[in-house]
Every structure is written in structure tokens, then in C-alpha cells.
Amino acid sequence: MLHLTFARHAGLVLVIGAALLTANAQAANPTEFVAPAPELIQGQWLNTEGGKPLTLAGLKGKVTVLHFWTFGCINCLRNIPAYERWQKRFVGRDVTFVGIHTPETARERKPENVERETKKLGITYPVLIDGETKNWREWGQQWWPTVYLLDRKGRIRYRWEGELEWQNAGGERWMGNAIDRLLRERK
What we know:
Blueprint: E1 2-3, E2 6-9, E3 12-15, H1 18-21, E4 30-36, E5 44-46, E6 63-69, H2 74-89, E7 95-101, H3 106-109, H4 111-120, E8 127-129, H5 134-138, E9 146-150, E10 155-161, H6 171-184
């Protein structure tokens, strides 16, 4: 297991050991490591009570499934049913889901389009609209979709870049089992 540190420098996040973490998006393999999760840079929220913001600090004590996506990305859309199945599988357990919608095109940058598409897709968990790509940069993102699993202490423990089932990779099962492992860890 890798132990990494996120360090801020000139508004960018540098990931120590980035060469070890950079993966071909098509490889669809999990990365296991321990690193503090950067706090979310706030923006407009969907699917929260009154549009109130969430913070990762406020989610400590729960296992968090956090994914970067955009509604125009077919690879992102292919992952959404897996998140829905995980929501059903882990209902009533200390698991929370957060989507970070980071646009790739001008159409995806408009909040009203994100809101409409989120509803159309049936996404019920909180979604942070990252229209200015601040969270994307803060997390050192490269690919849509990317799924992170954070442990109860708010640390990043697993990352999956790309479709969970790209070329029958088994990502939905692998990451689902990783959620179970994180739930069994002490708080």
C-alpha cells in the first residue's frame, strides 16, 4: 500500500509519487494507497437539503464514495448504475455518496444543464457542480470518470480511473468489496 501526501503549491496539488499513481484510463485497475483527501472547494450543490454544502470533514465517520464525472461522458454514464446498486447494497450503513460534476464542454458548464441531467439520470445523492474545475485541479484529476473511496477518517484509500467494467474489469465488484473492507475497519 502506498502512503502519499497531497501538498499545495501555487494553487495546484502535487501528488508525491505521481508516477506510481498515473494509470492508463483504459487499464481500469484499482489503486490502493493512503492519502489525506483534499477538502472540497465549495460551489453549487444539488440533492442536499436546501442546497446546503457538504464538507469531507463533516462526513468523517462514514465511508465516502466520491466520483468525478460529467454528464456528456459515456464512460461516466456507464458507471452510474453501479453507484445506484452500491446505494441499495449499503443502505442503512455508514456509506455516503458524493458526485463532483466537472465539465468537459461549454454545455456541461451550465448549472441548469447539470441539474436537468442529474434529475434525468435519477441521481439522488449530493452532487457538487465544479464548473470552474477547482476541485478537479485540487484533486489532481486526469480522467472522467474517477471513483475514490475514503475511509472513516477521511483518507483516500482506493481510486479507480475509468469505467468500472471496461473490458470486463470487475471494478464494481472489486470496489464494492473495498467498501465492505472499509466498513469493517474501526472508526
